[in-house]
Amino acid sequence: MSPLRPRGARLGFVALLMMLLPLPLAAEPLFSFEATPGKLPKTALPVRYDIDLTPDLAQLTIAGLETVEVELREPAARITLNAVNMTIDEASADDGAQHAAVALDAAAETATLSFPQALPAGAHRLSLRFSAKINAFDRGLFFADYPTEQGSKRLISSQLEPADARRIFPCWDEPSFKASFKLTVTVPQSFMAVSNMPVAHEEMAAPGLKRVSFAPTPKMSSYLFVLTSGELERITADAGGVAIGVVTTKGKSDKGRFALGEAVKLLGYYNDYFGAAFPLPKLDLIAVPGGYGGAMENWGGITFFESRLLFDPATDSDAHRRDIFSVIAHEMAHQWFGDLVTMGWWDNLWLNEGFASWMQEKAAEHFHPQWRSWLNGYGQKQVAMALDARRTSHPIQQTVADESEAMLAFDGITYSKGQAFIRMLEAYLGQNPFRDGIRAYMAAHAYSNTTTADLWQALAQSTGKPVAAIASPFTEQAGVPLVFAETDCRDGVQQLALQLERFAIIPARSFSSASEQKSLPSVSWKLPLAFGSVGAGASPSAVLLDGTTSFTGGPCGEPLKVNTGDIGYYRVSYGPRSGAALVAALDLMAPEDRLNMLADGWAMVAGRRAELSSYLALVERLSPNDQRAVWDQVISSFATLDHLARGQAEREAQRAYARARLRPVFDRLGWDAAGHGMVAGDDDDTLLRARLIRVLGDLGDAEIVSEARARFARFLIDPQTLAPELRDSVIHLVGLSADATTYEQLLSLARASTVTSERVRYYLAAASAQDAALAKRTLALTLTSEISVTIVGPVIGSVASFAEQPELAWRFARENFDALLARLGPGFRDQMVPNLMTNFNDEDHALQLAHFEPSQSTAGGRIASARALETMAIAADFKARALPELSAWIRQHKP
Fold first, then answer.
1. In the chain, N or C: fewer CB atoms in 10 Å?
2. What pLDDT is stored for residue 307 in this prediction?
3. Known catalytic membership, residue 331
4. Domain interval for residue 208
5. Looking at 417, 451, 476, which one is the last position of a domain?
């Protein structure tokens, strides 16, 4: 693909002069502590915490002592900080000079210390004695029980983002209150304790216990504090003077060697890119079994769900290394974007997550270009654009009122729209000038907080371009730009007309209240746009589109493609002439452009701008030899149609059509890599093969399902006969059609394994069993300690979707709501229930969600429910339109 560059690559005199002039000095930061949102008064500033914790792993409690050095900006008789689900038994100031009365507000999650006399402005020391809880769910300090060859073991770990440090110790738990943290923890003698900084001192305590003290951290936000302790081991490597470690439960450290090697490389790469060396003496990557489903960027001590960090070639596919690399690259990027420089409040969360998501792909392209990460990761942008086309979308910079809303900010808009927009902006500004701006931003705001405007200011100074005018519309308003493109022939010369609009997916009928059906607000953009001729060697032109414009050039009939290389964050709808020329030239396009045509074609159907036949006509032109990413888009579309056809009479005919389109691709690849006898290799064909096996089995391909069962039978006798690359797909299909005997085999495999990724694989396969009696048994397991809280949500979701028992899953969630809430925490109420309901697309179930009181009891729950209701309405609308169109297409185009 030709690199995107300004049309003609010519610079005007003014632009050239600006490049020759020295950059202006850094402007004053736009972040304002006083103006930053939040609940806490800004009269008391924490400077340093000295925290002494004694966790009791049997009673699941924490005894704590804490001294906090604070700076009072004005005299105060009352000091308010955060605390939740804890008791504060004693509080005093300045070594007992004044004792405070303590008032806890459970709803506000605060503790207010009231002193007999006002403390004068200046420095003070607060002392607190408190007790807190160790949770079963992954908020605050939580426990994880995990199987070993010696029996069940227990460790503790922390998960604090966005606002759960307050569950471990009283603190100013808002990101703008940065301070240093010095931790001492008392743990069993056999335990290792890991925190943000290296161990400074260790000594014997009571019999069987030890006290571990850590060096104080640099200034950081409270949500970045970390504590993990258990029977652990560490492997280490040096990275330019920084000790990189992978910490695992005992016996698993060898599986961390891939992660360790990649982390060493990444640290050097990031040190150079950000122009700032990693400032801590060590960085641990901590594998938590049965912890939580992702990873958390705690400064100097990143925690990972075990399967996101450890790689075992005997059980994991080589392609799994791609996922591990991406997660490590994402979380390590946070050590700068988020930890060193932190957003002032959760309304600017995208400064953390959007940039880390972009950086993980940039790092993958640098170290592993054969993975083609931008091409194969296209789905992230598509998810964001689908969400962003809805009424319930939100700007990248969104208003966040409280903690329940902050939890919802970790979504596809924040991560993937942020990522896609940054990629487009970097392409427009140029890689080197963009990097220079990032370096200046890091240097100016290290150990402090920022807003998005601070970043635009740094980039504008480094590039000399009006960055805010381009960027602000993408971050301050919701919505997806739509470019309508059409060609015309005048006097033998082709004209290209471009018109900028808004793309939206509005169902014919909404399941939301009338107040939520208001018209979409008007929006406008200055859109960096690339277009050019189709074919090898064609160089794209770059323009900044903010309305309607046209261009002249090229012979009539020459296909002109907009969004060359699929770098832009916008949809394109082509007129009849332009569209016909592009369809005819589909096989001449680069894979990125072919994929872009498919994705936009599918979106036009969803947005009621095209019929399904227009998309299917594109699919019919694809070669079985096309790239994985191209066929992956088709697979996802067929899977969506099949899900919507559940219970419909025409479903089998539609499945047969989908199988007929996909089977030639699989037949080209076969079950095993040619000449090897087993699948092996970190390549796209390996990944496509596994995906095709799974989806063809889901679509009822009897031959595929039969072969999967046969391979599973051989696997039970000799696990080496089933290649790691195929295990997820084969075992999923075995679970899908499982009888009682096979179901028990899957549960036995799960119970016998001490490897988290294997246990998850078997439990989710069992949860996919489409026998209703087996589905009931699976649901009952989620109330027991056998199923880790980590996978309770995915297990219930698999019963609803893959087992096709959504009503059963919904009834179970209602009848066992209190027990599930106690196990899973507030996320079950606010997010999991609304997500579960998106398995339905009818008004009756929409009303049930709208009137389900627990999920309407918090701001976050109401937002998640509104999004789910819109998802259900869009699915109902798409189903009503697309399925009849698909049946008509099949009648006219027999497979």
1. C
2. 87
3. yes
4. 43-230
5. 476
